[in-house]
Design goal:
mainly alpha, 0% strand, 3 helices, elongated, 53% helix
Length: 98
């Protein structure tokens, strides 16, 4: 048998096996497990830190000079980094009249 003929025969067999394997894989029906329902954690009480963050967001650039906003951002950063738990007092108490 000639070397060229043997190489062509090997290539044809390889392609035939690849096509057959692809066809079998495409027709296979997989049982996709149902995705678990995503649980959304609802806080038991409204988070005062969230309200304070919104207030600081509405202040815009002036918030960088506001000491309460700086404290809110520090608290938010501490929570994110795991330094303080969400159950700890979050926001400095606002003074009456503000």
């Amino acid at each position: 048998m000639d070397g060229k003929l043997l190489a062509r025969l090997g290539a044809i067999i390889f392609v035939a096996v690849a096509i057959t394997a692809t066809a079998i894989e495409m027709t296979r029906e997989e049982d996709v497990p149902a995705a678990p329902a995503a649980r959304q954690l609802q806080p038991s009480a409204p988070d005062p830190l969230h309200a304070a963050q919104r207030r600081c967001q509405q202040l815009g650039q002036k918030a960088t000079e506001n000491s309460e906003c700086l404290a809110v951002w520090a608290e938010s950063r501490d929570r994110f980094l795991g330094i303080r738990s969400p159950d700890a007092p979050a926001v400095p108490h606002q003074k009456e009249g503000q």
